[in-house]
Amino acid sequence: MKQTVYTASPESQQIHVWSLHQDGKLTLVQVVDVPGQVQPMVISPDKQYLYVGVRPEFRVIAYRIAPDDGALTFAGESALPGSPTHISTDHSGKFLFSGSYNQASVSVTRLEEGLPVGVVDVVEGLDGCHSANITPDNRTLWVPALKQDRICLFTLSDDGKLVAQTPAEVTTVEGAGPRHMAFHPNQQYAYCVNELNSSVDVWELSDPHGEIECVQTLDMMPPDFTGTRWAADIHITPDGRHLYTCDRTSSTLTVFTISEDGSVLEVQGFQPTETQPRGFNVDHSGKYVLAVGQKSHHLAVYEIKGEQGLLEEKGRYAVGQGPMWVVVNAH
Ligand SMILES: O=C1O[C@H](COP(=O)(O)O)[C@@H](O)[C@H](O)[C@H]1O
Questions:
Q1: Which of 61, 104, 244, 325 could form an S-S bond across to 77 if both were Cys, CB 3.0 to 4.6 Å?
Q2: How many domains does the chain have?
Q3: CB 222 within 8 A of CB 203
Q4: Residue 144 maps to which CATH number?
Q5: In sequence order, what are the beta bridge partners of 164?
Q6: What's the mean per-residue pLDDT of the chain?
Q7: ipTM score of the complex?
């Protein structure tokens, strides 16, 4: 398996394309100058396109991915109704979702033959909308509205419309600020990192018409931490054994193990990382974590070690200015 890593740096308006080698080393393949401040990124389910959200002219740009070395070529673009804070796709590759914090909305863009062609739905009134997360069965879109301490639940219709479910939302404790999510591969549990109190909620997914319950809430900060909590991102290993989160004030990655059935998390340790980590990811082999520092302008690679999933730094690399997002493609 070959892997390519993409980092987005909005201040220098660049995407860096890296080959990730088996030993965790990176070599630079390409630096793409993006026409705008590039923030969120996602790879199409068929692995042929990288979609990126750009501002101040709000749009999604599609880059074709070269199958051999992962290099990017501009392929198309489409306007978005608000600043793209987060983008993702459904699993069929027919729709792209964009959560907009500043516009308090989530939008759905139709994809045709991999290219974005236009917005087909917008849901407003989602204050602090921070991400859109489709369940592994492609049925339900979970959309955290950070400023409302709720995660809205929508059914994705065949024509890309978002239909509020019953119940239409789940709520966190007051002041948590739900932000980003990950799903367990067994499809029974979702994990949400809460920005404002740096905690993680474990959501038990049930029958679509039944109750969805928060079965555990964990503090992700070291016990002696006294600063302002400012969590950002969350990722799970492909085998569902380890979960990682990041906090920007402390520049820390928190390491969790996950119980066999996905229901119980346990904090295993804290990894100091790049300054102000807003985005990170796990590679497809489940061997490496890659994190960028918005204030260090570097990408660090960590090897996942042993049963606890603790991290050991393998190298760090200068990227563009203000890096925010990391995605990994396997081809
Ligand atoms: O994490 C955060 O995100 C919001 C929205 O970010 P944007 O890049 O879409 O403008 C930001 O305003 C907030 O301060 C920050 O904590």
A1: 61
A2: 1
A3: no
A4: 2.130.10.10
A5: 154
A6: 97
A7: 0.96
Neighbours of 12 (CB within 10 A): 17
pLDDT for position 208:
56
Are 32 and 17 contacting, i.e. CB atoms less than 8 angstroms apart? Answer: yes
> Residue 175 C-alpha to ligand 1 middle, in angstroms?
16
Residue minimizing CA distance to atom 2 of ligand 1 = 232
Q: Mean per-residue pLDDT for 81-89?
A: 98
For residue 121, give the nearest of 103, 138, 108 by alpha carbon: 108
Query: Residue 167: which of 151, 145, 156, 179 has the closest Cα?
Result: 151
Q: How many Å apart are CA 242 and CA 255, to the nearest integer?
A: 7
Do residues 3 and 330 touch, judged by C-beta distance below 8 A?
Answer: yes
State the residue for tokens 């979970």.
Answer: 142
Query: Which of 120, 213, 209 shows the shortest CA–CA distance to 170?
Result: 213
- Domain of residue 279: give its range: 3-330
Which residue has tokens 């939008």?
A: 107
pTM over cut 0.95:
yes
CA of residue 163 to ligand 1 center, whole Å: 26
98-137 pLDDT, tens digit each: 999 999 999 999 999 999 999 999 999 999 999 999 999 9
3-state secondary structure of 10: coil
Determine the distance separating the centroid of ligand 1 and the alpha carbon of 102, expressed in angstroms.
8
